[in-house]
Fold each of these.
Amino acid sequence: MKGIYVHIPFCRVICTYCDFIKEVAKPKRHRRYVEALCREIAMAADRLNGATTLYLGGGTPSLLDDDDLRLIFDAIAEVILPASLQEVTIEANPEDITEAKAALFKRLGINRVSLGVQTFHPDALRFLRRTHEPADVFQAVLRLQTAGIMNINLDLIFALPNQTMAELRHDLDEIVRLDPTHVSAYSLIVEEGTRLKTLIDQGEVTPADEDTEADMFNAVIDTLTTHGYTHYEISNFAKPSCESAHNRMYWENREYVGLGVGAHGHEGNRRLLNTPRVKDYLERLENHTSPVVADDPDEGIKDTLIMGLRLREGVSLKTMHTRHGVDVFTHYPALEKARDNGLIEVVKGNLRLTHKGMLLGNEVFMIF
Amino acid sequence: MADKAQIDALKARQQRIRNFSIIAHIDHGKSTLADRILEHTKSITAREMREQMLDSMDLERERGITIKLNAVEINHVHSDGNAYVFHLIDTPGHVDFTYEVSRSLAACEGALLVVDAAQGIEAQTLANVYLAIDNNLEIIPVINKIDLPAADVEKVRKDIEDVIGLDASHAVLTSAKEGIGIEEIINRLVTDIPAPKGDVDKPLKALIFDSFYDPYRGIVPSIRIVDGTVEKGDIIKIMSTGKTFEVVEVGVMTPKQTPRAALGPGDVGYLTASIKNASDVRVGDTITLKKKAADAPLPGYRPLSPMVYCGLFPIDSNDYNDLREALERLKLNDASLIYEPETSQALGFGFRTGFLGMLHMEIIQERIEREFKIDLIATAPSVVYHVHQTDGTMKKIDNPSLMPETQHIDRIEEPFVEATLLTPKDYVGNIMELCQSKRGRFQTMKYLGDARVQLIYHMPLLEIVYDFFDKLKSQSKGYASLDYEFHSYQASKLVKMDILINGHSVDALSTIVHREFAYRRGKAITEKLKDLIPRHMFEVPVQAAIHNKIIARSTIRAMRKNVLAKCYGGDVSRKKKLLEKQKEGKKRMKSVGNVDVPQEAFLTVLSLDD
């Protein structure tokens, strides 16, 4: 089991809250990037062997034109058997999903689409600088399903500045009405270097307070679990057997290969990082040079716990013993206090966060 | 011992030495004036010129005030053809530093009294001028900032004559900023200030008026020679201890250290003698020679007793010894700083430290954090209470947590000061109201000229220690000034107020309050702590109590959400860094009975808007 992550750094507009590696560029640059990416794929052929999932993230991968997408999938088909990929996901903006695009996705073997919905409130969408209207989401879901792509994730952001509980409830109602197989729900994070951060520092925007965030998070959990979703990771909800196999690899601290600008990989016991600058990435690959700029050992025990506890089922104590040779409670005595505080519990041999712990995960992660 | 030719040279030199200091209120232009004098006499080249040359501590330049005194030698060729030597000894202008002022004045024969042409005389200037008059100094009045549109030279001249009683008809009119009047000041230094007395043939008597630490040369005392001479190779003796040292170098500050063959009467300079211990060269001591010793030391100084105490605790308990060393080092040229070990249940091991006033306290804390890189927690300042117990004994209490049990207390007396306030007459109403609200007792009111008023109040020092100074400034648009000196101990209705966090009384947060203010203050403190202490896994009550009776309460609600929303393969390392940062933040807090309390919380009482 192994995952492949491919980063597409292009966007039409930069969102208010986004701190990923991205740029607004012309189609000509898209093509130059795709060609570099194809070269990296070819160079990484050996490392991609054994992959079972593929994830195209961004940026906005759906922004690429049909030929660009075909080039990428062709390059991948050159090095691994497409049939070995059980889950192939692409991130998309709702307004990009035309009937033709949906059909192309299907033809390329994409079987899961993650739509950046964020909210159904037009004003909030504009504040976030999203470029779609609420109606686009319904269109997109319908077109994907018509094309035969049934596994659909909707991204939702809550605890937006000035958002009311009634507004969140409306967002949740719409999600439930659309009935996707998967929902990722994030409370808005204020990242350094974003426009959102500047607005807050200048006092133009007031972030939601902790109580509002907690109330909203609870509302999200209650609504989605009532409607048949399993809360299987801190921010992720899925219908039965629709959990994201690719993302699970991250949380289970497994191997994945990162391709494209700024992509991270976890191979062997090393964490790899590609150059975060598009220009540098292009030049390196055009010179047949590796784009990897950092190659550090991972922190096995710590990583397995921090990532693994995000999952509802948590981490198997037995696996911790066989994989890392540690008894977790002896290795981290402070865990006892977290257990006393009701943040963690041991259920059927697994150490996991309680419901309370899901909202207060950092208090546990800080122990490691 | 200096030879004959050298002695003659020193004698001739003595006649042309002028030692002076500058007395001025903060912002009246003292440091700028000093800069101009240095420039005009070409004592420093333009390349060396930094704004406010004398203020060498970073902290001084940032705050625009002078803390440590500095002595500079200036060479000047006068119109009479002779070369004169000036020693400018800088003085601090803040009320907390009167002691430093008296030190520098004792090393001088004259002083420039600088008064702002627009603002007139301020309370602090008054206090320092009287000190100078007591020291028999020749005072040259200087009216500065005459270029300002609001300047009123005649009014200020009259002020100086009416309020201080000095003849101001020959006052020098200057604008240090514009360089006006500098030459006249220099001429007057030559003609008005007497040459130092003192006899080159007598045994050495040198006054230590400051000292600093040099990592390569040990403790370096700043000295003023009164009688005799000193040079390299001499064996000197410290008169109070009898300890002897061999002189390695003598010299003057120009303003950098510049070695000289010998120092004679009237000279102001330094000497190095591989002195290792700060306690060996106390400021105010007299240095003489081992072979030919003086029979009696110079009068020295009377150190002021500290008025304000607070606990200083290292955040990291491993820094305790470093903190002790830092205090020792600072005490080297600050005899008014006193400290002794203190143990707090909440904060661990630290030092109870005494200061002359609030600014002194802030400066010391900042210097420890900056120069010695020790993170500190300071507890709220306290004054010294006289607690008369029912058994007839009296205890001096400078730490609220050590207050005896109520049933043993007969009465508590607190220090009152006589506060002198100068203000434009428009603000008299505001200021009187402020003084009343701070338990001040009105004494007298006097008009100085027709626009300014002098108010005298007797006030509890405790109230001044809190926010009186800031309030005074805001009530008078910054125009009122304050000077105070200890008056007497008086009985007051005082009570000890404890603060309980999560049910645990936190000794470091206990304060003494006046009974009538207790409820309001308790409420303000608990509210403020509620905002300062971060949320925890559980609800944390914050209570104020007077002998076991809860008088105010606030509640810090339990933490409800603290989790990274997004964590995928892309950013494991970055997310881990965020977690590390949260962890670090926690480490910087003090854990008090299961609750992490940030540094600022221990000073809340100071910044209440009650």
Amino acid sequence: MTTGLREKLEEALFPPVVALLIALVCGDLLILSYGQSPAMVYRLLLEGTWGNAYGFGQVLYKATTLTFTGLAVSMGIRAGLFNVGAESQLAAGGFLAAMAGLAVSPGMPGILAIPICMVAAAVGGGIVGAIPGFLKVKFGAHEVIVTIMLNFVVLALLNWAIATHLNVPETLHTTEISSGRLPRVESFIGAFHGSAANLTLIVALLVAVAVWFYLFRSRQGYELRAVGLQPDAAEYGGIRVGKIWFRAMVLSGAIAGLGGINYVLGYKYYYEEGFAGGSGFLGIAVALVGRNHPLGVVLAALFFATLSQGGLAIHAFVPKQMVEVLQGVVILAVAMSVPEVRRALRQARRPAAA
Amino acid sequence: MNPVDFITQTLRIAVPYLFATAGGVLAERAGIISLTLEGFMLSGAFSATLGTYYSGSPWIGLLCGVLGGLVFGLIHSVATIRYRADQVVVGIAINLLAIGATRFFLQLAFESSSNSPRIEGFAASASARGFDNPLLWVGLLSAPILAFFLYKTPFGLRVRAVGEHPGAAESVGVNVTRIRYIAVAVSGMVAALGGVFLALDQHQFTDQMTAGRGFIAVAAVIFGRWDPARAALACLLFAAAETLQIQLQGTQLIASQFISMIPYLLTIIALAGVVGRAVPPAALGKTGD
């Protein structure tokens, strides 16, 4: 048992560590190309993120959205599906959350309004996830392409709705919701003043626990993982693969959609065009680095959030776009080292097993 | 409006799509998923801008743009073929990398977060409507050239074999790995030409100037069912829709957002098989273990 755990940990931890080292070297080169000292820039990056309450609050805020999208993508991958649509699912979730918040009576207490908005967010993402799920099961349409294409369609649709009907004049956002707002962390801990971190954070952690329980402790989760590992064998074993796939896509979309509340209910209190801002795509990176395990996803979300907030902290010395390059490098390095590490570790273990 | 204007504008808009789509068809027929077209185009546009700016010659810029595409094509092929990384993940990583790297080096080279200074281009006279640009003609001819290579040359036969039945191809002595490396590298260079065309046509590089064109090209590859001629027709169709959108601007007849959806909706419909199912090359995406 313990050796099994150790092997799993080795397989899970090697790729991110290798990726981090490669990213550090690339970062060094980029910083040096700007004539700055890597040690100084990296220190600034850490001080601006984990070194003060405001920066840390911003990291938590960004990590919250990424936890949702990362969990959404991993849910798909566990079922053998690649959901590239978290970006539009997140946007649709935020959109419906705002619509619900505007629709309920302004005086409605939060204890009622917040759950209504949350359900709306999950429904919004779930619908966008259901379409590729349905097309996959019914027609065999590949979910990667459908989700990519659907991103453009859904975002165009939302942009149209905002630009022509629902915006506050001269802006690209809706009016603010008055009920359904989630409190900021700063209202409990003063040091977080000004940061966007809010109680969605707790929701994200609860969803992570729920996803873990669903995947590893429930019958449905067992079936889902069986389908992900070997769809043919699962089908032969009496599992209806199509049903599992459809359900996984709906759940995946719903989780991504729920992430929309971080911005809409917790930060700005309105839906704004483009608020997802790439968090859906970064969710793929988070799932990959987090090895599709809820705990890994939370840690990976913190890592990527640190990078993106860190970019702002170093911007006076090195353009913040450096972290975008590093994000790409990390994803690439992890993707490249995962199969390599697996092969290497298996080879290393083989004599011991024989 | 004047039909000649409409056709010439459609052709000019189609050129970047035609290049990127030709690159996409080539890589995917060899079995490698091409979600990287956006990144290839962007790196091509930026490298071409750098080259043209520092040399003053669009020809040197063209060469640099192709090299930029080659670099990203090689990253893509090494990651997916040598390291057997997931092709979709690598595609997304390369697009992020291209956006980040072009932004970073835009700052470094020109101290701007939005655009480069003005550069030279090919098109000289206003009366020629851009048709005195040699790159435009290469773009329009890219589909027939690719079709000739794919269907009439031994190399093309190998590419198709590698994309459909790599095992069978291997057993008759085809070097699957080498064919795939070449296909993806060439794909990067060809797709980059789409970005080169954009940058030289607009006489500058602007941040994220490809604006999703690489994904429209992905749509064209699928909607054209991985065939050079049909994919090129898809490009022309999408470009015509875009021209229509530009022409209708301000008329309130139909919101631009709905016209911009056309390529994506058509592709989803094609994948769902409502009008003749789109079936990808059999070995597409399968380089993992």
Amino acid sequence: MGRIRRLAWRGIVAAALAATLPPAGAHAQSSGKTLSFIPEADLKSLDPIWTTAYITRNYGYMVYDTLFALDEHFKVQPQMAEKWTVSEDNLVYTITLRDGLKWHDGAPVRPEDCIASLERWMKRDVLGQTLPGVIGEMKAVDDRTFSITLKKPFPLLLDAVGKLSSNVPFMMPERVAKTDANTQIKESIGSGPFKFAASEWVPGAKAVFVKNADYVPRKEPPSWAAGGKVVKVDRVEWLYIPDPQTAANALNAGEVDWWQQLPQDLVAMLAKNKDVTVANVDPLGSVGVLRFNHEQPPFDNPKMRQAVEWVIDQKEMMTALAGDQKYWKTCYSYFSCGTPLANDAANAPLAGKRDVEKARALVKEAGYAGQKVVVMTATDQPIVNAQALVAMEALKKIGVDAELAAMDWGTLITRRASHDPVDKGGWNIFFTWFVAPDMANPALNAALRGNGASAWFGWPKDAKIEELRDQWFAAPDLAAQKKVAEAIQTEAFESVPYVPTGMFQIPTAYRSNLKGVIVAPVVFLWNVEKS
Amino acid sequence: MFSYVVRRLIATIPVMAIVAGFVFSLLYFAPGDPAAIIAGDLATAQDIARIHHQLGLDEPFLVRFWQWAWGVLRGDLGISIFTNLPVWQLIQQRLEPTAALTVTTLIVSIVVAIPIGVLAAWRAGTWIDRAAMAFAVLGFSVPSFVLAYILILVFSVELDWLPVQGYVSIREGFWPFLQHLILPSTALGLIYAALIARITRTSMLEVLSQDYIRTAHAKGLSSRNVLVGHALKNAAVPIATIIGIGVALLIGGVIATETVFAIPGIGRLTVDAILRRDYPIIQGVILLFSAAYVILNLLIDLSYTVLDPRVRY
């Protein structure tokens, strides 16, 4: 009897337990109104003017809007601007905002907001910093219109204001934009297509955006950052999953909808899943960079830098970095291939047959005394590390006594600021990469500058490049700009501020029920819907 | 005992002060500059120097230490360099997932380990004992992250029973909460289960050879009563000690587990902060960990008074 009672109790408990449990497979699937997205990095800062981090730029595109924006034809199009006029002497730009633009707190967007936003951006951005020397005055004309008066004609004004990548001149309310440019802003009030749900932000794990119901998109179809930003989901959740295998499993299981950047070794695994689409949504890709320290021997000698040019094989570099050729291409230009200024001028040292003998001769000519060369690599950055390992072999081929200094990225970017000799903690070579829009022209390509101690790490000194850069700013049209760009490149292959190591694309993967993914160099989450 | 507890709590102050000083010094002298990370890849040396100055990172060591220590004394752990959010707020956001993972892991470990350990001691030398000890060796040998991937592959990807990643608060429902913790706590718990099972077996073997156990058997008590009521109770002090040590080890173990299962806990907060040199977070979390260790040790010591009536403070 006792046994029967025990069995009965067990049955009741088991049935009760079973009733409380949902059926298998009914867990955590991403809902139709929510887009679950694994971004390229953790969102750490909410100020896209204060930092150049791409993840914060992407956040900026969600929350903020821009006056002008670049489209897929590299043309600057009005975004918040309804129209603009330029005076006959090319000195006064008058910009009228679209009617009904509102901040996320409901206040109207005013010209004063835009002026303050531009002023803050001009203090931080590499291109924006050229504008104070050009702009005489910015003032509001009426509730929707403001003017920019120049001291001298500057044909690139709208290109600067419509800049695609960091720092993007996002518009912010005046009270926010008045924040010191070197201090992070504390609010997330934009006028963009999404509102940031600050209360749900868990740094290192989750950032949530909700659809801005008051946003009025433009009528044009989306084209890169330009066109209509039509939001087709109620909510976007950025889920930062640092472990690639976990991210892959989550996508395979349908717990997330989109993984922005997947490592090459997981492409094949995800491609096998018919519910997952593996694609390239960045039409331009990114550019690998081998950077010399121009202040320290032996690469203070241009002959040594030229020698490296003759042995760096972009195919080897990119194969190590990106694997399948579907995801990389050679690019023997100092301007990103696929952008208007890319050209072949004087590129034989990089594009021609790899010539170890010639490189050795250049090393000898340079009088290389066999001193140790420190090549820095970041082992937590596969893109950086792959380039470093391939370059080490190339350096050995030409008789350079190269030593690989392995560290994490946080240490590398601190050490690269050192001007000291290598025996006192300095360095000779490091590697990095930029998205193609950041290397598309002389204004944006920071690594190309030759302004010595004020230049980007490595500090090349090349007065000719600086002079040509100024000419480029004054070039009246694209044809003239191209001509100057060719001259800059010719000089760059002589002075070798850095060696471009090729172009690569980082594949993306999303559930096949996602539609409307925008193909662009920056990830945009409007226009995306779940079927 | 009250005065003992008070004395122990007062003794934590110098311990934590030493930890704080040590951690601060370590970070001060460690390579890496948060200003360089904040400024981004396109920044110039001048940009970095400006941010460095703005963050007060160019202040002398003692000035920085005093500013931080004075804040801590007032209950202010500082502001995260990157997110601009108070460190205490970030820790609070992460405490629940880590606490939940730790507790469920402990439950898994204890529920698995103690019966195995008792059974192995009771049937010492038999195949049951050998199987239990084989489990212990396996538990020690397989890293938790390897086990984690195997569990994900089987139960999430193939069977689709449990989620791959994430954490759901208990406030959003008990089942979703539990569902997200089953795999991580199993992956992490088996190592500790192996450890506890071994100690339980050893301790039980020693107790089972005592005269009073023979007497209990002679009096006709059932094996269950002897094992649980007499032997296990008397073997409990070493087991409690190892469980306490296990909790301390868990704090380290959660870092890998939280990463694999994308659980937004303290472990991941620490790793992220270290990678980007977010000093206030690192200092705050380590201070918290040291406090947790000290309190945990105190609780273990106090548990002896319950488990062994001879122990008095």
